[in-house]
Structure formats: structure tokens, C-alpha cells
Write a structure and sequence with these properties.
By secondary structure, the chain is an alpha/beta fold. Helix content is 37%, strand content 16%. Helix 2 packs parallel to helix 3 (86-100), helix 2 packs parallel to helix 10 and helix 3 packs across helix 4 (112-118). It binds the ligand Cc1ncc(COP(=O)(O)OP(=O)(O)O)c(N)n1, 4-methyl-5-hydroxyethylthiazole phosphate and magnesium ion. Magnesium ion is lined by residues 109-110, 126, 129.
């Protein structure tokens, strides 16, 4: 059975750890990341707290985070693409982390230094951010590292990267990101999932991102994703807890019809 987030334990240093025997290892010589040795990440409902979309008020972001986890969010990310004041960003990340209080892991987008400084559970990296090998070296074996995958060729590379999940997209058009790549659609998602599974087997959790909402979340799961990452449909316009509950139910139902519970 896959490890659930609830089964992770806090080590004495205060960072998240997993039980004995679950340490990440590298295959000597080949440089292959062993999928089975990584941390199990629950991608079912991944909420991204984007300061560009939601504003940069720390208390408001923390309240949104708390609502999301109360409604069933399984993973959160702090995304700040206008990071001119690192100290203020750190204060926001700490406020969000405190509000979540261990109920879901919190990752920082792009910035390994801020993730380390804030003592959160990991980072999300894109194809031109710090390389996952470098991030792993800095963050250690117990951090969660996620990677954006936009193409089949990028999916082919997953076999050798020390990451804990990949997120595929953009699937649909999004209003939350400047200059997004053209959407790959459900067909493109399915093709990239196929190649990611060839590269890394069934063990690597695969999320999907961009333009996902209550109307299309189930179709994204049916196309092969293990969960959905969202900004607008979860955090814009209020009622985040209720939206999270509804989205989580749709994802869980689609996963149930597919014959697994979303944890890998
Ligand atoms: C869960 C998740 N998936 C994809 C992204 C996009 O990452 P990236 O391609 O590095 O683009 P930016 O978000 O940094 O603009 C993400 N942040 N989170
Ligand atoms: C960060 C990111 N990366 C690709 S699309 C996107 C934004 C997704 O936001 P939304 O869920 O509102 O479409
Ligand atoms: Mg990035």
C-alpha cells in the first residue's frame, strides 16, 4: 500500500520524514532515480496560492490555504512570480505553513532557497528552473520535488530525475499565467501520461494543470492524471472550502471509476 501523508512522521529536526527503510537512493553508476524509494505524494487536489492572482496579503493567503485543506486539498504551493522582496515572501510562506499546520505539504514554486529558509516540505520546479539534481542536493532526500512536464520528450527524461511527482500541462487555456504555452488538451495529456508511465512506471504521481475546474476535472483524471492542480477554480471568488470539497469529490469519484485511489 502506498504511504499516505498522514503516515509521514516529523523527525527531530522538524522537517518531514518517512519511516525507516524508505530513504531515497540513487542507482550507483546509472544515475537512475529509484521511483520506489521516493516519498509518496498525494496529488489529488493541489492548490496553488499565486500572489499575482490572489494578492500578497499574508493573512488572506493563509486563510485561503486553511480553507483549501479543510475542504480536502492534499498539496499546496506558494507561487510568486514577482518576487522583489524575499523577506516579505518568506513571511507569507511561513504564515501559510503555520495555517496549514501539517495537514498537507506546502511547496514553494521555483525557489529552493525560500523553501529551505521557511522549512517547508519541498519545491516545484519547471524545465528552466534549478535542475532537480541540484535541488535534491540542496534539500536532501526527504524533501518533495515536483517538476513541470509539457512535452513527450520531457516525459521521456523522467526515468533519471530525482523527483517525487510530475505535473503535466498546460492542459486547457488559463487566465492565471502570463504567456502560457499552447494547451495540449486531453489528447495531449493522455499522450504525455503514456510516455511518463513508460519512463517511470506507475509509481510516479502525475498531476495536470491549467484551466481545470469542476466541469473538466473528471475528464483530466480519466485521461490518466492522478490529480489536478488549480489556482482560479479553487481560490478565486470565495467559498474555497466548498469548492475544494466539490473538486475533491469529483477527483475521487473519477479515480474510483478508474480503479485506484489516487495515491501511488
Ligand atoms: C503544479 C505545478 N505545475 C506546473 C507549474 C508550472 O511551473 P513552471 O513551468 O516552472 O512555470 P511557473 O509556474 O514557474 O511560471 C507549477 N508552478 N505548478
Ligand atoms: C502555474 C501554471 N502553470 C501552467 S498553467 C498555470 C496556472 C493554472 O491556473 P488555473 O488553474 O487558474 O488555470
Ligand atoms: Mg517555475
Amino acid at each position: 500500500m502506498a504511504l499516505g501523508w498522514q503516515m509521514l512522521e516529523r523527525d527531530r529536526g522538524g522537517s518531514m520524514s518517512i519511516g525507516a527503510g524508505q530513504e531515497r537512493r540513487q542507482d550507483a553508476g546509472l544515475g537512475l532515480a529509484r521511483p520506489s524509494a521516493g516519498i509518496a505524494v498525494d496529488l489529488r487536489l493541489y492548490g496553488i496560492l499565486d500572489t499575482g492572482v490572489l494578492g500578497d496579503d499574508a493573512a488572506a493567503l493563509a486563510a485561503l490555504a486553511a480553507e483549501a485543506v479543510a475542504g480536502g486539498a492534499t498539496l499546496l504551493q506558494y507561487r510568486d512570480k514577482d518576487l522583489t522582496d524575499a523577506r516579505a515572501a518568506l513571511a507569507r510562506i511561513r504564515a501559510i505553513h503555520a495555517a496549514v499546520n501539517g495537514r498537507a505539504p506546502l511547496l514553494v514554486n521555483d525557489r529552493v532557497d525560500l523553501a529551505l529558509a521557511a522549512g517547508v516540505e519541498g519545491v516545484h520546479l519547471g524545465q528552466s528552473d534549478l535542475h532537480p539534481e541540484e535541488a535534491r542536493r540542496l534539500l536532501g532526500p526527504r524533501a518533495i520535488i515536483g517538476l513541470t512536464v509539457k512535452t513527450g520528450a520531457q516525459a521521456d527524461e523522467l526515468y533519471r530525475l530525482p523527483i517525487d511527482y510530475a505535473c503535466i500541462g498546460g492542459v486547457f487555456a488559463t487566465a492565471s499565467k502570463d504567456n502560457p504555452d499552447p494547451p495540449v488538451g486531453l489528447d495531449g495529456l493522455q499522450r504525455i501520461v503514456f510516455r511518463a508511465r513508460l519512463a517511470r512506471g506507475q509509481a510516479l504521481p502525475l498531476g495536470a494543470i491549467a484551466g481545470i475546474d469542476a466541469s473538466n476535472a473528471a475528464s483530466v483524471i480519466r485521461a490518466g492524471a492522478d490529480g489536478v492542480a488549480l489556482i482560479g477554480a479553487l481560490f478565486k471568488g470565495g467559498a474555497t472550502e466548498a469548492k475544494a470539497r466539490d473538486l475533491r469529490a469529483r477527483v475521487d469519484e473519477a479515480l474510483g471509476q478508474r480503479g485506484n485511489a489516487g495515491m501511488r
